[in-house]
Specification:
The structure is a single chain. Helix 9 runs parallel beside helix 17 and helix 16 packs across helix 17. The longest helix is centred in the last third of the chain and has 26 residues. The protein contains 18 helices and 34 strands. The strands form 9 sheets. Strands 3-5-1-15-12-13-14 form a 7-stranded mixed beta sheet. It has 3 domains: about 150 residues, 2-Layer Sandwich (Aldehyde Oxidoreductase, domain 4); about 190 residues, Aldehyde oxidase/xanthine dehydrogenase, a/b hammerhead (Aldehyde Oxidoreductase, domain 3), CATH 3.90.1170.50; about 350 residues, Aldehyde Oxidoreductase, domain 4 (2-Layer Sandwich). A hairpin with a 6-residue loop joins strand 29 and strand 30. It is about 25% helix and about 25% strand. The protein is of the alpha+beta class. It binds dioxothiomolybdenum(VI) ion. Dioxothiomolybdenum(VI) ion binds next to loops.
């Protein structure tokens, strides 16, 4: 054993200096000899077909190397299968690959790729490509598609059934004393992390190297290999740094393969970056949606029925909806439940994962309905949730691997000052401002990978160690926390440990999606580092020249790089002494971890939390200000309190953004997004950001993975928007059932 000391510490990011000084190279920063630049030309219509290209002018433009269209681009080798990247397999974001023929399914769909010797020349030439279309009517909005809606067998790449039921929802409603029946709408959201998606591609004979902004290097590798008909070993993917992803870099869209094809066709390394505008049409989005909820409850507030229907547009090729009905159907102990997805075909690309994909939207609707129920019954909102608390997943009957939810309510409420809340709407004022307090439950599933997660640990004779795993640092602080995990498992100080990742030549890790990164990567790193420590201890106890010779390895502890007998701390030697004496420059061990099927089958795994918000509403101007947010979360074990708090805080602020600002709409006449820049798509700036407090409630979880890590990536967003909507109701007495809530809704 070792004495843990690094895990949990608020260690600064090991790559922080690198990042702020420009030393960290992102996928679009790669410089190569002979590099050329590719620019995608997107379709200007949402539906129809291409009748012809005129590239004469573009081809004559200065610096142009090549223009690719469906007329000269080699066909892809296989039709992309839609498999969410959590499966660790090829993970195209949609089964459609562009530029195979002239059919147009959505605005922005790639129709040409222009390659030139500089970025500016490629952009200028791209603007000169003329495309003629035969346009057909498009369907892009709920209003247009509602009548064609149908119930799919499954959604989310086939992983989630289209309908889920338990008990008898009609009977549950019949026995209810009170009901809430309401429709909630949620505007589409677009992805726009600081770093737009980008790929640099280079061929060396038949070997392809891609520097790609991705959540999983293996996902890019396997997807591009399949599309190009290559064996995976011929595709190396490097992704050391990712400037935020949040789901838009989870699935692999067309651009990495297009970059590889352009590089092959031109014989030059290619850099292809999506523009800000293209980020709105190229990497999926959170779909516009409407949710209809019916709650039935007894007069003492116990849920007797929950009916949850969702309607949303999907693409022409895939049946995708974010699983908004998932957590919302599991969080309370309601015996009678019905969840149904309905889809209609629209002229959009396939929607995708977007932070807390489904959980954020589904819990927004449910938690607003619960607030209405509390108000109707005259029960405190926290008390109502406690009355419906469940120790087991009501769908399967399996117990939670760990919970902490009640403590989150209690500690969150305490820190927020919930007891000061007078339940009567419009009862709190600050001058002219109406003040409201709202809360909501947060929960996010603990996803495990389907396949083994691997890492490798190597100790050098100077006592330093390197730990390797293929994962990129996707912006969360992976390299930092994995250094902490490895240091503790090896029994060395964290400064003597270094993490290397982001390369398919390293041991394979699945894409970091679904908040699974910290849990699965720490499990692999912990296993590899523990194997290495065990190997070193075994070698010492077997070495006739070691002071530990003959000792039972289980009695040896390691601290500060020194192996000693637990009961006789003065008997022992350092790793460095052992290696030097045996002429070993280094010692290495691998490790693999996969979730135990027994645990997966017998436990339900969820990260819980509670959100609180205070808003101020100006009754004359309709201005809404969020004054404070407090979130209490129980993410199992915290690997680094600073990075964990930052993640949760980011999620909460994103929830505020969804509640009050973020929205994109399709122009129904042209089938185009109305907002296509960060000038039109609103996100909060520092002046909008309230005081955000995060309370970490550590719970012991022996089931999820070796270190009991449940993840903090997404739960911070779940419930945040609902807490704000509920606070607005409390402030004003007005229940707004749409996201975002804007000034107009207050007037
Ligand atoms: Mo997350 S939306 O699974 O990257």
């Amino acid at each position: 054993m070792t004495t843990a000391s690094a895990i949990g510490q608020p260690l600064d990011r090991v790559d922080g200096r690198h990042k702020v000084s420009g030393g960290a190279h992102y996928s679009a920063d790669i410089q190569l000899d002979g590099l050329a630049y590719a620019v995608i030309v997107g379709a200007r219509v949402a539906s129809g077909r291409i009748t012809g290209f005129d590239t004469t002018e573009a081809l004559e433009a200065v610096g142009v190397v090549k223009i690719l269209t469906h007329e000269n681009l080699p066909k892809i080798a296989t039709q992309p299968p839609l498999i969410p990247s959590l499966a660790g397999m090829p993970a195209p974001g949609q089964t459609f690959f562009p530029m195979q023929d002239g059919t147009i399914y959505y605005e922005g769909q790639p129709v040409a790729v222009v390659v030139a010797d500089t970025l500016e020349r490629a952009q200028a030439a791209a603007a000169l490509v003329r495309v003629a279309y035969e346009e057909t009517p498009s369907v892009t909005t709920l209003a247009q598609g509602r009548d064609q809606a149908y119930e799919p067998k499954a959604i989310f790449g086939g992983f989630v059934p289209g309908r889920n039921q338990r008990g008898d929802v009609e009977a549950g409603l019949a026995q209810a004393d009170v009901r809430v029946d309401a429709t909630y709408t949620y505007a589409a959201n677009n992805h726009n992390p600081i770093e737009p998606s980008a790929t640099t591609a280079a061929w060396d004979e038949d070997q392809l190297t891609l520097w790609d902004a991705t959540q999983g290097v293996a996902s890019t590798q396997l997807t591009v290999a399949a599309l190009l008909g290559l064996t995976p070993s011929k595709v190396r993917v490097i992704s050391h740094f990712v400037g935020g992803s949040f789901g838009c870099k989870a699935m692999i869209w067309a651009h990495p393969a297009l970059a590889a094809l352009a590089a092959r066709e031109t014989g030059r390394p290619i850099k292809l970056s999506l523009t800000r505008e293209q980020m709105f049409t190229s990497v999926g989005h959170r779909e516009e949606q409407e949710q209809h909820l019916t709650l039935g409850a007894s007069s003492d507030g116990r849920l007797t029925a929950l009916r949850h229907h969702k309607l949303s547009p999907t693409s022409h090729f895939d049946e995708w909806a974010e699983p908004s009905l998932g957590v919302a159907g599991q969080i309370y102990g309601c015996p009678n439940y019905e969840g149904v997805y309905r889809l209609f075909r629209a002229n959009t690309m396939t929607p995708t994962f977007m932070r807390a994909p489904g959980e954020a939207t589904g819990m927004y609707a449910l938690e607003c309905a619960m607030d209405d129920l509390a108000h109707q019954l005259g029960i405190d909102p926290i008390e109502l949730r406690l009355r419906n608390y469940t120790d087991t997943d009501p769908g399967t009957g399996n117990p939670w691997s760990s919970s902490g939810l009640k403590e989150c309510y209690e500690r969150g409420a305490g820190r927020f000052g919930w007891e000061r809340r007078n339940p009567e709407p419009r009862s709190h004022r600050d001058g002219n401002w109406l003040i409201g307090y709202g809360m909501a439950t947060a929960a996010y599933p603990v996803y495990g990978p389907n396949n083994p997660q691997r890492a490798r640990a190597r100790l050098y004779s100077d006592g330093t160690a390197v730990i390797q795993a293929a994962t990129p640092d996707f912006g969360t602080g992976v390299a930092t926390v994995m250094t902490q995990v490895a240091a503790d498992a090896l029994g060395i100080p964290v400064e003597r440990c270094r993490f290397e990742g982001g390369d398919t030549t390293l041991p394979t890790i699945a894409a970091a999606v679904g908040s699974s990164g910290a849990g699965m990567i720490s499990a692999a790193v912990h296993t590899a580092a523990t194997n290495l420590r065990d190997q070193l201890v075994a070698q010492a106890t077997a070495d006739s020249q070691s002071p530990l010779h003959g000792a039972d390895p289980s009695t040896v502890v390691v601290q500060d790089g020194r192996m000693t007998l637990r009961d006789q701390p003065n008997v022992g030697e350092s790793y460095a002494e052992l290696l030097h004496r045996n002429f070993l420059p280094d010692v290495e061990a691998g490790g693999a971890w996969s979730p135990s099927p027994q645990n997966t089958n017998n436990y339900a795994m969820m990260t819980f939390g509670a959100q609180f918000a205070e808003v101020a509403v100006d009754p004359d101007l309709g201005v809404i200000r969020v004054r404070r947010m407090v979130g209490a979360f129980a993410p199992g074990r915290v690997l680094n309190s600073k990075t964990a708090e930052s993640q949760l805080m980011g999620g909460m602020l994103w929830g505020m953004s969804q509640a009050l600002l973020e929205a994109n709409f399709m122009d129904p006449r042209r089938g185009r997004w109305v907002a296509s820049s960060l000038g039109e798509y609103l996100v909060p700036v520092n002046a909008d950001a309230p005081e955000v407090e995060v309370e970490l409630v550590e719970v012991d979880d022996q089931i999820v993975n070796p270190l009991g890590v449940k993840g903090v990536g997404e739960v911070g967003q779940v419930g945040a928007a609902a807490a704000i909507a509920n606070a607005i109701h409390h402030a004003t007495g007005r229940r707004v059932r749409k996201m975002p809530i804007t000034i107009e809704d207050m007037l």
